[in-house]
Request: fold
Amino acid sequence: MLFRSSDGTGPASVRRLARQTAVALGGQTSVRLVFDDSLFTGPALGPGWASGFPAAGVAAPVSALMMDQGRKSPKAAARVKDPALRTARAFSRFLKNQGITVRSVERGKAPATARELSRVESDTITTMVQRMLTASDNDVAECLGHLIGGAVSGDASFVGGAEGTTQVLREAGIDVAGLDLFDASGLSPDNRVAPVTIGEVLSTVVREERWSAISGGLAVAGVTGTLATRFTTDAASAGRGIVRAKTGTLTGVGALAGTLVDRTGYPLVFVVIGNEIRSQARARNVMDRLASSLTECGCRQ
Reply:
């Protein structure tokens, strides 16, 4: 379960769940709390990930039970080592605020005979996908990747997510030659993808309504998400508000891929990937200018 916030707002609040649970207990004032995060399997950090990623705020250890993206506090960048345990302890505190004594907090597995006391609903998958794309959210990406693995092959892990994603793309008619995935966020330095694969995904997004969640999540140049502070130079100004794209940044690697319409109103897709980049600032400027130049062409003439 992916909790979005612990502050009582949003569709999946730990505090709200605790209030509902206290009511559902029907006067019982003492409980033993067992939390089950067994939906996801395998390592918590992806192949090739630096061990310092959580502390640096790059991504949390991937967990099926998480609140506040595994952050040490809602406004902190650093992530905890065990997001599920932190969530369970927070839930315990909220239960105590409702007058419930929590005798212990332990990791376990829910029995098949367990009875549901209360529930809170997450955002829709569409909303999560769009949030992930707009903000380039590694944590949401990895949770979605694990869920894909679970849905496609029953393997909700990094391996299952990578294989499931590749299978979905293949079944959609996307060219996956040379595609070698190890995670869903793209943080693994072992990932390999050909620009044509990304281009075909974007072409499918433009053509097919069932992929519209992706289109709606791409950041808008100079306006939203990871592109809010880009396309600021005169040379890239033509792309503001027109280019919609996903950014990608690793050490020595930069990418920008998305959609736009040219001056005749014709839709175009583009993919720019740079390896062995020495200056991310310069690379981003070049990519912004390339994308902006496409908005000024009349590509059907």
